[in-house]
Every structure is written in C-alpha cells, then in structure tokens.
Amino acid sequence: MPEHWLLLDIGNTHTVAGVFRADGDHIAEMRFRTDPHCTADEYRMLLRQLFQDPLGRSVWELVDRVILSTVVPALERVVAQACSNLPCLSINAGLARDFELDLPHPEQLGADRLCNVAGALQRAPAPLLIVDAGTATTFCLVDPVRGYIGGAIVPGLETSWRALQGRAAKLFAVELIRPDNVVGNTTETQIQSGVLQGYEALIEGMADRLLRDAGFAKATLVATGGCSRLIRLSERFRLEPDLTLLGLFRYGQLNDK
Predict the structure, then answer these.
(1) What is the pLDDT of residues 194-211, one digit of tens each?
(2) Considering 23, 64, 112, 213, which one is annotated as catalytic?
(3) What was the pLDDT predicted at 68?
(4) Long-range residue pairs from 102-110, CB within 8 A, at least 24 positions apart, any chain
(5) Is 112 noted as a catalytic residue in this protein?
(6) Global pTM?
(7) Which of 3, 11, 26, 58 registers the highest number of CB atoms within 10 A of its CB?
C-alpha cells in the first residue's frame, strides 16, 4: 500500500492541508484559519476532526509523513509536536530541490515561495513568473535554466483593504464583489472597482515590469493564492489554486526519508 503524506501550507491568514498518496494521488484537502496561538494538542485534534469525514478515519492513523511549509515561525514547533512520532519535513533553502537559487541570501527566501517555484515547475517549463495573492502578494521569477532570480512583495488585497478601512473614517465596509464596469456610480461600487480592479491592474502592471527588467521575452505566468479567487486576471495567467501543495509534494519526493 502506498504511503500517505500530510502536506501543510501554513500562511499568515489561512492554512491549507492536503493528504496525498506517495504516488501523487490527491486524496483530500481542507482550508482553515491560521491560529498562531494554537497548541500542539489543539492542532492535532483540529486536523483529526477536519479530515474525519473525507477520509473515514483519523488522519493520524493514515499518514506516514508530514511535509510542512510555514511563514508563521511559532507554529513550526507546534506542528512538529502535534505530529508526535511521524517524520516531519520542514521546507527551507537547504533541502534538495530541482531548481537553483540565484540569490545573495537564499536562506531568507520563505518556504511558501520555495514551494511555489517547485510546484510551478511541475506544471510548466521555465521561464516563469509566479504570483501568489495572499496576505502579501509575492512575485517570483524563474529564468530559462530553472534559476530563481528574485521578484517582488506587495501588501495583499485584503491587507490593503483593511488598512484603507482603518484609516479612512467615511469609507464604510462593503462586500468585495468585482464589478464588471470599472466606472463606479456609487461609493460602494467605486470602492469595489478600486480595490478589486485596481488590484488586478497592480498585478498586471508589476508582471509587465518584472518581465521587462528580467529581460524575459516570454514566460509562463502562473497565479495562485486565496485572493486570486476574488479577482479576474488576463488570460495570459494560468490559475493553479493548489500550487503550494504541489510544491510541498515535490519537495517530499526529492527529500525522501
């Protein structure tokens, strides 16, 4: 029977957990809010409850290994404790990978971005531009010889929206639904247009500038992240909602216990 791996992508706002077979079969996936104050016992119980129905058994009875990407340092130790006696692989720049890090300080690169590059290279050949729209929106560039050469980081869509609400007393909360017309004729539709279509323009414009300054005549553009569901990018972007999990799986393959 093939091994089962628990893949954990812990972001600042949300966590995505997936159970994969070691042969690549995607068994189940759950998404929940990240709680940096969660204890190991609470984390273990939460994952057991979330996966009970789709798996028909305790996730801890099924999985043989845990592969972890986290941008919340406090949770790395918590997850390792929650995994009890299971081997836990935490993604970092020192692990085996099938791309290069052409950076002056590769150890500073976040685990989520390492996974995004690994996942994107399973979906498309280099060169690549990868956009991850989350709490922060990150841009990653991979050159034609599979070298990660850099990128950019900007405040995320919801982060920017919350900051605007907190600093502008007369702007009220609205539901973030994308209007078809960029010209809003009420305060509500103008906010929706500015926040959502404005953010689309930011991503499209940053993509153009990054490709230009990197000297890429052409590249595959890949988009992922929770906020990518709220916006509508141009058809040149390839949407890959499970990109980070795919990268976690690839790291698991290359760093077999």
Answers:
(1) 889 999 999 999 999 999
(2) 112
(3) 97
(4) 102/143, 102/147, 102/148, 102/149, 103/148, 103/149, 103/150, 109/148, 110/71, 110/138
(5) yes
(6) 0.93
(7) 11
